[in-house]
From TrEMBL, chains A, B, C, D, E, F:
This is serine O-acetyltransferase. It is an enzyme of class 2 (transferase). One of its GO terms (cellular component) is cytoplasm. Pathway: Amino-acid biosynthesis; L-cysteine biosynthesis; L-cysteine from L-serine: step 1/2. Residues 278-289 have a biased composition (Basic and acidic residues).
């Protein structure tokens, strides 16, 4: 996302420098957060002016708020509330958690940048903040995970349930998720209790990181940094998907996948063969490069 | 759906001739629309009398309205509203769009007939209008697509997001969808920005028409007229699924599929082989013929 | 779930004996129901005391009610209501049906026990009652099925539609489902009109029990007792999955699967070969044993 | 209200005999209740047919219910619910109370007949049931009073508060109210803790039956049978308004008023003089005779 | 309200000529309406910019709408809706009625101007449109009256009931109300079935125009043009309050009041005496002159 | 309210000393606030245990909150929200204002104590906090007044309007109200823009502090400390009601009332005569002594 594009997207906003890569962004926290929040407000202001029918929504959800954490807490509270879990209660809960833990805020910012950089359909930060159920589910999960780590488990599980109902995204609150993670489309994603997802990962819809039976313990996949998991892939058991690996759409993965290799098929096999799998140089979770992937696949299939 | 069946389904309604095929139906517009709307009201009236617990719902959603477009706008407004996007605003938006574009109304009628003809579980037009999330998501998409084409993009994207939340159907507003299209069950369907879907297509749940990377441009599948796509199929990239082709359930398709052929498997291959694929005569999107398909598949597997 | 675990989970409750297996449980009805209800109240009381933010929800949904059927009816009424199908109407409908049919109540209890015993992430009965969309969708289906069997079809279909919207679980009201059934995660499950599911079955998310075409009649799978169906499996047509069979995640099954055998892959094949498939001794639907399954699979793949 | 009028009002209903006077009606309970309920349903059915825009409301509130107590409980539950006192909870509470105490039901029926007979603007029983805030506030009070008498005081006070918010009618749950009571228009009525209201009383809007200070004990008015209290009258302290007395609009009454006499003015005095007040023969609470009253008043004023 | 004041109130709006008197305004319809609507939008835009917390409300209620009738219909629909009378239904009803009857729109505009001119606390047109329950109740009444005149009585009475619940203003739909009427504060106003209110009338809160008994027929007050009725006044029976008369606060009026005279007290008497009442020159309903009134009163009292 | 009574009312709470008089209470701020909040929680806990049907309400509104200001903000937010003014927005607004202005909190505490001490029907602090519309309207007014003083007038007027709709209490945000004020029953109270209400005042329902015409400026009553205003009294114009004065129910007051005197009647006159009005020693706003008042009145009348 070069600077020109950003400027084109929100002409009325102060000019921004091209954003650093999402993971860097997460490091210097507050500045990045302020910059993105300014951009979001500029986008919302532009859209509210152009589209009166949407202005009320944009004001209530973004423009009425003094900070990203308030806007996000309001939006999540409204999305996830029910007749028995009131929006004010959820708003309070989200706001308290986001306010007290800057790492959750910087992770949210990194996720926003990740979506904006990696997804060509993501036309603006505000588009992601308002409309991406994967983004919203992930932020709600971060709060649920925080509650879980504070032994507030019943509340964490209630949040998980609301996210599963509203977004059809089912992430156990104990699961650990890194920064700059993109859940694209997100419908049907299931992530189990002992799963771990690294930084800079991109996961498409209908992906399962599932367990292997009725006994507890460490039983879910570990996803390394920079991994890309295609739509509908099912990864089961305490397997390790190495850094920068790529998992093909529709794959069923029951094996470890080495770093920077590609696994495809049902059951999944390594492209290039088990003993000497082909390696790539890119970071698939960032590059989202499906094109070469298709070639590889074709090679593999023939 | 022979005439007897229709008459049996709604004995209190004026006798209807057997409906023409959905695509013909779409041509002569108003008459077809009036006929289907009369049928819907007759069905709703019969059900309201038989089931007092449902009568309020049937009156508010169907019987209180003077036209299909009002009923549909009301129903979509109620389904898709949220605490920050009020039902009256959405109702207004849907009603304006349906009122001003007869092609959207005839497409809705063609979709209703398609569901009634092709899905044996679809017992009446009103059943589809009230209960089929695929039907409702598709009509909301048509409105979002119209808004997109008018450069009202923020509003179009907000609609897409509501449909994705409420129906778990995620169709980019830029995607082009023909008439007489059946999204059966529909949960988990994802259709990307540059995808095109022809007329008389039937698409089962969990189907993805996805992109191939982080760069924009034309990057999603083109689905020809009369295609049938089985449950859970994933089609990726700017590939062409020819007219009357059939895609097996659970397939992962990364290749062009010639007209009237069948692709199955993960990765998908053509039944009969790449060089001389077997051809069928029927229109799978209309015939929904999975039976012979099973035979073909078995042949292929063995 | 040994007795110690139960006691640990709810220290303030009267000590319970280790529960019998779910199916036995279903036999002696009332006692089991009372025991589980006592346990649920004890869990909710403990959680309400520990977590004031959740207390209101726990009181309104569990602790304010004198019986499981009232709590469940209230919870389903609130979850499934809409602006045109009011919570009071649904509450009345659920309560009447659960009150008049003890078999629905004992099935709900057996389902609760099944989740508690088989799913290591299910930390308490109340967690399942409150948060498991698969459990809630299944109980709503039982009521819809009852209505269907009383020829109250329009109402049954309206319920199906609400469940499909709210939980992304789409079960035709005519489908027959046994007791002690676990729908784990449940998002995206589709079960067709003539499908039959036996007792002690466990079904993961994204599973389809689908039909084969546009003609009515008996066209959906029959799932025997004790079957385990992995995530994303698609079973199509009037095929028979024998007692105690196991279906691998992501499989596409178009064939009969003999009792106590395993089918995997797309298209699915029997582990050990078509003619002499390997047989296991366990009841997969109860044991949830994915571990050995992975081994089998690896064997098969190589 | 002669029989012809009743028949004219609801031609599709079975012919009713002219209703006995409200108080007699209250005696033979069930029959009267069934007869009035049949009439209400006939009226609602007629209105639903004539006015599709109202049909949904009439079905959900009246026609979907098998009995008056269910319809009334549903209606009160919906009117009085809030985001923290859910409609299902209130519905349950009203239904339980009305079901278990036939005297509350016969009082409601007597109140309906009283409104129908005494108020020329009351065109039907269903009009009163649906629209008269005085009627609805009174029925909710009867339930609150029952709860109060069972020492469920916090719940009774919460109900009082909801009625005060929603209908602007503030009746302390300890106040005792007879049968066949008409609160006409009702806005602003305040009735204190130790007030007693007899049978066949008619009370207009803005009427206060208030106390006299900050000490507890018996400190509110006692209103005899058949009394009529005009709009805006304020009666303060433990005074006795005798049977069949009439209180002029806008009066401020701090004295006992003997039976069948009239008090008017601020401060109120007896028409005819303190020592030999004029007496009337009618029952003002039933006859609602303001005409002669005007004459009396004029006499008095001059 | 001189032009300067108007301009001061909304500096960003195009300069308006000082409005003609409300009744003149009502004559030339469309222009006045457009001018006031422009002013309302300018005010709302100014307030939305100054107060982000209110912007969402101002956009949804005013700025998202292309015309006053849509804004008003939306606002009334949201204010008056309930769980059984949906906002979309009411919106439709209001919009249809306002669209088809220009006299209702010009009456609304005249009422807005009346409030702005006569009430020093009315700081802007938008303040009245958004916040004056008397204004809103009156517009809803105009629609109910229209329905009543079309024999849609059940619907008219349902509207009356909603207005009585929500605004505590109870106006029978048959009552006739002129233009440029100000209901100030409005709580507790009751207007009976055969009452008539002229043009340029101002009525304070707690005012009753009531009937005289249980028999039908013409039994409520007739209020002439330009009348001012003080807070808490009760006028009973088919009496005539002459043009330009003034009724003191708290008065109880049972007699005809000649034009341009003043009635005060309980029971009310004419200032200056029955035979030669003092006459004033102003139009009290427009001048709202309570000051001289106090002097007169004092004279009268002494 | 002696200490024993307090202890009897909430046996499970820590023992409290008898509260000082409300005005003293307001002085030492935080301690008083903490003490009253502890008492409220103890009462709510006791009621929640005794009444499961109310527990959810008591937890969501009181027990889930760490402070009185949060509980009050939540309660007001839920009471006053609408479909276009969301509860989260109002909650935020109330919480910010109460948090930043301790004088608003101590005024609320003083009002709670005033209700508890003066109103024999006020059985507990929590009863007042939850159920007294006068208390709630007054606290919302304090926030609106704060906003008004910050020139956030549009928002202040929107709040006034919500309070007028929901509680039928219409207080202009510019009006100044002291501490330890009791609005008893409160329905129909109207307080104008330039009105001032002192400390320790008690005001019954239907009381108007109104203006005198269409011109701005200082035009509403000034109510001194310790005044008691009876139900339905109307006080008009910039008159001065002296400290400790008493205004009879139903009075219409257009004159200054000297300190510690009583005005009654329509038009109101001073008890004892204009030139040498009788004086009392008590503070009527605190003593609420209507008993001697009746005697005075009787004397006066005769």
């Amino acid at each position: 996302m070069p600077g020109e594009e950003l400027r084109a997207a929100a002409t009325s906003s102060p000019q921004l420098q091209p954003p650093p890569s999402p993971m860097d962004a997460a490091e210097d926290g507050g500045d990045e957060e302020a910059q993105v929040w300014d951009q979001i407000k500029a986008e919302a202001k532009r859209d509210a002016e152009a589209e009166p029918a949407l202005a009320s929504y944009l004001y209530s959800t973004i423009l009425a708020h003094p900070s990203l954490e308030r806007s996000l807490s309001f939006h999540l509270g409204n999305k996830l509330c029910s007749s028995t879990l009131l929006s004010t209660l959820l708003y309070d809960l989200f706001l308290d958690t986001f306010s007290n833990d800057p790492s959750l805020r910087s992770a949210a910012v990194a996720d926003l940048i990740a979506a904006r950089v990696r997804d060509p359909a993501c036309v603006s930060f505000s588009h992601c903040l308002l409309n991406y159920k994967g983004f919203l589910a992930c932020q709600a999960h971060r709060v649920a995970h925080k509650l879980w780590s504070q032994s507030r488990r019943a509340l964490a599980l209630a949040l998980q349930s609301r996210v599963a109902d509203v977004f059809a995204v089912d992430i156990h609150p104990a699961a650990k998720i890194g920064k700059a993670v993109l859940f694209d489309h997100a419908t049907g994603v299931v992530v189990g209790e002992t799963a771990v997802i690294g930084n800079n990962v991109s996961i498409l819809h209908h992906v399962t990181l599932g367990g292997t039976g009725k006994f507890g313990g460490d039983r879910h996949p570990k996803i390394g940094d920079g991994v890309l998991i295609g739509a509908g892939a099912t990864i089961l058991g305490n397997v390790k998907i190495g850094e920068g690996a790529k998992i093909g759409a529709g794959s069923v993965v029951l094996i470890d996948v080495p770093p920077k290799t590609t696994a495809v098929g049902n059951p999944a096999r390594l492209v290039g063969g088990k003993n000497k799998p082909r390696q790539h140089d890119e970071v698939p979770g960032e590059s989202m490069d499906h094109t070469s992937f298709i070639t590889e696949w074709s090679d593999y299939v023939i």
